[in-house]
Specification:
- Helix content is 39%, strand content 22%.
- The chain is an alpha/beta fold and 189 residues long.
- The protein has a single domain, classed as Formyl transferase, N-terminal domain (Rossmann fold, 3-Layer(aba) Sandwich).
- A 7-stranded mixed beta sheet has the order 3-2-1-4-5-6-7, covered by helices on one side.
- Helix 1 links the parallel strand 1 and strand 2.
- The chain starts with a strand and ends with a helix.
């Protein structure tokens, strides 16, 4: 059995979907820990409702990779999933879990990626650019924002009448449909 930790900073809908996916299937993986940097994040409530421990690791403590590594070792974590986690992963953590950290990005990388490109910022940029499609990218994590090897992409059309809110709804549907199964396939779970 492989232990999965989810890192999330926000509402936690992707985290909830991933936890539920693995709880409802016979699998070689289980989400055993959620880490967030915000005590007011919705993911705290969602993890508790699903019986998964959630630890709050503030930004300053998260920068100290030794702290996070100790936590991950204590929970015997094999795989890290970034699901709306907004902090840069420290290099020591990337080194220790290289090939075992995945992220989801709400656009078709390499377009609309990099520092500051998350959530609504991405959808606003997509609409402003006149792009005719967008989607999701699930990728391995390295030392750069949104730069690791791409594992999976799925797309949806962007129409001239779409607003950032319309695009967000379409992209969210892709995330909830694909993220958990791609994690399972990527790590043979």
């Amino acid at each position: 059995m492989k232990n999965i930790a989810i890192f999330a900073s926000g509402e936690g809908t992707n985290a909830e979907s991933i936890i539920t996916y693995f709880q409802q299937r016979e699998s070689m993986g289980s989400v055993t820990l959620v880490i967030t940097n915000r005590d007011d994040a919705g993911v705290v409530r969602r993890a508790a409702a699903l019986g998964v421990e959630c630890l709050i690791v503030p930004r300053d403590e998260f920068k100290d990779s030794a702290t996070v590594l100790k936590i991950l070792e204590l929970y015997k974590i094999d795989i890290i999933v970034l699901a709306g986690f907004l902090l840069m992963i420290p290099p020591a953590l990337v080194d220790r879990y290289r090939g075992s950290i995945v992220n989801i990005h709400p656009a078709l990388l390499p377009a609309f990626g990099g520092k500051g490109m998350y959530g609504r910022h991405v959808h606003e940029a997509v609409v402003a650019s006149g792009a005719t499609e967008t989607g999701i990218t699930i990728h391995h994590v390295n030392e750069q924002y949104d730069d690791g090897d791409i594992i999976f992409q799925a797309s949806v059309p962007v129409f001239p009448t779409d607003t950032p809110d319309n695009v967000a709804i379409k992209v969210r549907a892709l995330e909830l449909t694909h993220f958990a199964p791609v994690i399972a396939r990527t790590f043979d779970l």
